[in-house]
Amino acid sequence: MQYKTRGIVLYSSAYSDKYAITVVYTEEFGRVSYLTAKSKSRKTKTPKSLFHALAVLDLEVEHQNLREIQRIKEAKAHFPLLFLLTDPVKSAIGIFLADLISKLIREIQPDKLLFGYILQSIRILEFTKKTYANFHLVFMIGLTRFLGFYPDVSTYRKGMFFDLQNGVFTLYKPSHPYHLNPDEGRIFFNLLRMTYENMGVFKFSRNERNVITGRILEYYRLHLNNFPEIKSLTVLQTVFE
């Protein structure tokens, strides 16, 4: 059967001399592995140049439920990504986000709300002209809403600790080591107020931003089973130096 769906490219890996396996997060089918040609010819309906990290594509695909690797009949850019490919900071953020999403989304089942959030985030990253050094922080916090462990801020008061393990602010220091002290907790609470619209207002040094990113990833690891290392993190950290 042939279907039409939008898809977000996560990564590609070599399969043979002529083909690669490209992992795509699709709107209709969730995470799918597709066999894609390495050909750069303009005559092909699935040119290699389309399948870069975070590319948003309109796809016509073959889909069989019992098949591990599906096939793409035709692919077109849903909207072109220029700055994500040419701006070094946006490119590093994009590589990091694609790596993060590929590690988080392992389910075959589709989630159209999550797909919409990722799609809109890519669009904002591509077209924003505001300061976007904090973009990945907003994205990571927002993503926890869809993953089911968005922090509970309803009880926050100045001077509280943040319990990373339970996702809540607490007046007393938790008995386990997975927590933020009151100063860190205040920064984290302010971070939760950050949006794509106001992210440029929040000023962090390179070191502060790297520490915050690491703490958010620690929060992910405490709430997700077997959450692996994000290797592209070093690329992201380097680009802000």
Report on this model:
The chain is an alpha+beta fold. It has 2 domains: about 1-75, Beta Barrel (OB fold (Dihydrolipoamide Acetyltransferase, E2P)); about 85-150 and about 190-240, no CATH class. Helix content is about 35%, strand content about 20%. The protein is built from 7 helices and 8 strands; from the N terminus they run βββββααααβββααα. It has a 5-stranded mixed beta barrel with strand order 1-2-3-5-4. A 3-stranded antiparallel sheet has the order 7-6-8. α2 runs antiparallel to α7, α3 runs antiparallel to α4 and α4 (about 135-145) packs parallel to α6 (about 205-225). It is elongated and about 60 Å long. The chain starts with a strand and ends with a helix.
Total tally of structural domains: 2
Secondary-structure element pattern, one letter each: EEEEEHHHHEEEHHH
Structural class based on helices, strands and sheet pairing: alpha+beta
Instruction: Please give the share of residues in helix.
Output: 25-40%
Low-confidence stretches: none
- Strand order, main sheet: write it out: 1-2-3-5-4
Principal-axes shape call? elongated
Mean pLDDT: 91
Q: How would a textbook summarize the main sheet? A: 5 strands, mixed, barrel
DSSP summary, beta strand count: 8
- Evaluate the radius of gyration: 19 Å
Termini gap:
49 Å
Q: What share of the residues does DSSP label as strand, in percent?
A: 15-25%
Q: Number of helical runs?
A: 7
